Amino acid sequence: MSDNLLPCLKVRDWEGRAHTTCRVLWPDKPSEFMPWLAFGWDHPHTFEFLNQEKLKTLGMTEAEVEAQALDNLRKRTSAWQSHDAPLGEGKTLRLLVCMDDFFAAERILDAAFMKEAQRKLGAPAILVGVPRRGLILAAPFQTDTAVVLGFGGVVFGQFSRGESAPVSPMLFVVADGAILGFEESIAATLAAKKAGEGKADDEDEDGEDDPQAPYINAMTMKAAVDGKLEVHIMGGGEDGNRLARGFKDAFHLMVSKYKDNPGFSHRIKIVVFGYTPAAAQEPLPKMLAHLRGIVSDRQGHGMPPITIEMEIQKDSAFGSAGTATKKAPAPPAPARPSPPVSKAGPATARPLPPRPAAKRPAPPPPPEESNSGVWVKRAGWLLVGAIVLFLLIRFFLAP
User: Fold this and answer.
1) 128, 177, 322, 350: most buried by Cβ count inside 10 Å?
2) Is the pTM of this model over 0.70?
């Protein structure tokens, strides 16, 4: 019966964790986004989770169960596929994607599979996302903000699609086949320290249940050119007018905060995430012209000379709410819903047509994003922490 014992990643708020044998994926540091790692038996149309009562009858320890499950996972056939996603401004995000197996996300536990991704990407470390069932993505770990944000946007988009059971919107830092960590704590600290964000945070919380509420976030970083602070205002959503108003509000907030700061570069960049529909992007050029007009009209009246740029990210290889230019490599297949778990841990039925248990094609991503502003806010800040961790890695691994 141990031949089809396999690992299964579940979202952090999974209710079935109380009745199954499971642990957090990476126990070294707590996180509200950290998924659970459970185990069970893969049947043709069901996945039977292992509970404590069943564990006793197996005569195996939890460590032995995990070792057997990972060994069975490595025996399954799966492969990386390469994709290039345009980010705008001549930049391209090189991605590796695996979505040819129902248990693709669990490959983050396969050290050899992770080392292969690192070798293919030619990077000292990689960023890995396991946003939903049947999908794992990898990108080079680097300090280019646009690239890191682009990858984070892809992972968030896949997490929020709802095509298969969600796992986690966070990015993992992986090197030599092992998870090194993530930087959610740094993101939380930066968010808490942002002056004047109280009102904006309240507005965000009020709109969390509003499916049309846009995501708006702002951050500062030191420019490589002169070491001065640049303001990046990032956002996306389906309502173009609300998105434009959100960008304007964030612009005035950040100008008010940094205009008298001697370290401010007077450069502000607005980044529109690729999941924003084409129709919602239409009001943005007018909004940009309006902001530039304000800066010009108020020169010498409390407004410093500010350069404003706007970048609209292109659609990823996995589609967006706009017009997708590429199709996912996997053939169309119905999504496999997340199985409920009873206290006794019995097998649960899934309304799927008969198919072999050995391998299930992962569901392809749909052309539209679902909405979850709160997840975007958290995932966006995680990317900042990832950059910080990369600098630490380079420092300690430098010859």
Assistant:
1) 128
2) no
Would you state the pLDDT for residue 367? 40
For 287-327, how does the pLDDT look when each residue is reduced to its tens digit (9 = 90+)?
999 898 888 777 656 667 889 999 988 654 333 333 333 33
Percent of the chain with pLDDT over 70: 67
Q: Where are the beta strands (DSSP E) in the chain?
A: 5-10, 22-24, 36-42, 47-49, 81-88, 91-98, 126-132, 135-140, 171-175, 178-181, 215-222, 229-236, 264-272, 307-312
**pLDDT band at 330; cut points 50, 70, 90:** very low
Residue 94 has pLDDT above 80, yes or no: yes
Does residue 233 sit in the same domain as residue 243? Answer: yes
Token pair 């293919």: residue? 120
Tokens standing for residue 124: 């000292």
Write the pLDDT tens digit of every residue in 156-182.
878 877 788 989 988 999 999 999 987
CB count in 10 Å sphere of residue 196 = 11
Q: Who's near 309: CB < 8 A, 6+ residues apart?
A: 267, 268, 269, 270
Q: Are residues 280 and 335 in the same domain?
A: no
Based on the fold, state whether residues 107 and 220 are members of the same structural domain. Answer: no
- How many Cβ atoms from other residues are within 10 Å of residue 45's Cβ? 16
pLDDT (0 to 100) of residue 282: 93
Strand partners, 230: 221
The tokens describing 294, both together, are 């304000």
Answer for the pair 328, 367: CB distance below 8 angstroms, yes or no. Answer: no
Task: Please compute the mean of the pLDDT values over residues 214-221 and round it to a whole number.
Answer: 77
The phi, psi pair for 86, rounded to 5°, reads -70, 140
Measured CA to CA, the distance from residue 322 to residue 139 in angstroms comes to 23
Q: Is residue 322, in this structure, part of any structural domain at all?
A: no
Distance CA 177, CA 126 (A): 10
Domain that holds residue 6: 1-181+329-363+386-399
Q: Which two tokens stand for residue 304?
A: 């410093």
Beta partners for residue 129, in sequence order: 137, 171
Is 323 inside any structural domain? Answer: no
CA 324, distance to chain mean position in Å, is 19
Query: Hey, CA dihedral for 183, 189, 193, 199, is it positive or negative?
Result: positive
Backbone φ/ψ region at 341: left (φ over 0), alpha (ψ -120 to 50), beta: beta
